[in-house]
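Need a sequence for this fold. Nothing fancy.
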């Protein structure tokens, strides 16, 4: 099946350009923000929270997700289960959301991997899709056996014939490696086509979504691995999204397919634009908190450990001194003294000492992140109940 012969309407293309322009401006703003690099995982965690809400009726605690993701990658070579198990009591997930938390960390790891592969400008192949799906299933420490495409037909003749899936995915990958359409126009076709094929039994939504991001990463959108929380918009109007996907899978006639593809494209473009609005509002909240800290009676030499810690703590509310020193590139002793100054100023508090690891929590940044996510949940719920898109 060819993917390059379709012409979007002028109105849909206008939606693409509007969203793409905002993504480019967003990248430029991040490039001039000293604290932005420390907010990268925070923005990714917010996106992951709403990726989970697309299929689960729950909201994961943001600070717990950030600390578990950091522990997984830093101490346990990507083992998400170990990251969750070794969290301190202050950050642990409630028992009823441990599986969802695991899925969220795997989603974050899959975004990281897709972003890194895209920056290397490697071609997108069938193995790329299989590996991406493996990370979503098992995380970075998966068995790499590539559990493969589904071998059974779906109910009611939805999706592709299982025997046709390898060829259809291969064709889609060739399209994903090209530069047809604008970046968002190309991404939307990839996402739509993946949902029509339904190549896997599980994690279909997230696999197709991240696969669609890859050409956007390759072509300069979501620059430097920054992920605006696009899943917030996608978690609103879940019923509408489900109808779009089901209709695409059931009616595969060319005319109907093109009509649905246009609706899908507008939906994705609007969600992308919303994601930048959300990310900008979060950065604005972080800048307010940073200004508040820096207005206190602290002597903050430029590029000092104290200066760097104030940026770091905006997106990392719970850290050990050892980890903080590594992230800001300063010695343990210098970092420890700077943290002591922040503790005396009431910006952080010590919650534990484990051997040489002193654990500190920044309640103000934790509250900022938590309140921000809760406000998005509330806004999304209100929009969904009223039938109005945000």
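Here you go.
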């Amino acid at each position: 099946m060819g993917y390059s012969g379709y012409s979007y309407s002028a109105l849909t293309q206008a939606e693409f350009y509007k969203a793409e322009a905002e993504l480019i401006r967003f990248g430029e703003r991040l490039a001039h923000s000293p604290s932005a690099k420390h907010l990268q995982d925070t923005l990714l965690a917010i996106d992951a929270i709403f990726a989970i809400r697309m299929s689960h009726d729950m909201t994961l605690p943001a600070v717990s997700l950030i600390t578990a993701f950091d522990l997984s990658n830093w101490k346990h070579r990507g083992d998400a289960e170990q990251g969750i198990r070794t969290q301190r009591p202050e950050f642990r997930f409630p028992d009823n959301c441990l599986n969802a938390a695991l899925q969220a960390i795997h989603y974050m790891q899959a975004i990281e991997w897709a972003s890194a592969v895209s920056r290397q400008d490697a071609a997108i192949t069938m193995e790329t899709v299989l590996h991406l799906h493996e990370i979503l299933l098992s995380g970075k420490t998966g068995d790499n056996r590539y559990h493969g495409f589904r071998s059974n037909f779906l109910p009611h003749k939805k999706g592709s014939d299982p025997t046709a899936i390898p060829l259809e995915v291969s064709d889609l990958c060739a399209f994903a490696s090209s530069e047809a359409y604008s970046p968002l126009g190309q991404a939307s076709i990839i996402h739509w086509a993946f949902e029509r094929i339904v190549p896997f039994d599980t994690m279909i939504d997230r696999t197709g979504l991240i696969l669609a991001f890859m050409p956007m990463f390759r072509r300069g959108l979501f620059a430097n691995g920054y992920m605006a929380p696009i899943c917030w918009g996608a978690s609103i109007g879940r019923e509408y999204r489900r109808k779009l996907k089901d209709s695409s899978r059931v009616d595969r006639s060319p005319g109907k397919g093109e009509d649905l593809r246009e609706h899908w494209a507008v939906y994705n473009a609007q969600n992308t634009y919303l994601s930048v609005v959300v990310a900008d509002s979060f950065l604005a909240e972080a800048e307010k908190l940073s200004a508040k800290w820096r207005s206190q009676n602290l002597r903050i030499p430029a590029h000092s450990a104290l200066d760097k810690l104030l940026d770091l703590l905006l997106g990392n509310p719970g850290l050990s001194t050892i980890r903080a020193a590594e992230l800001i590139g300063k010695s343990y002793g210098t970092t420890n003294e700077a943290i002591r100054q922040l503790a005396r100023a009431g910006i952080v508090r010590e919650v534990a000492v484990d051997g040489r690891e002193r654990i500190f929590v920044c309640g103000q940044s934790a509250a900022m992140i938590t309140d921000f996510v809760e406000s998005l949940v509330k806004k999304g719920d209100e929009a969904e109940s009223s039938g109005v898109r945000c």
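For context: The radius of gyration is 22 Å.
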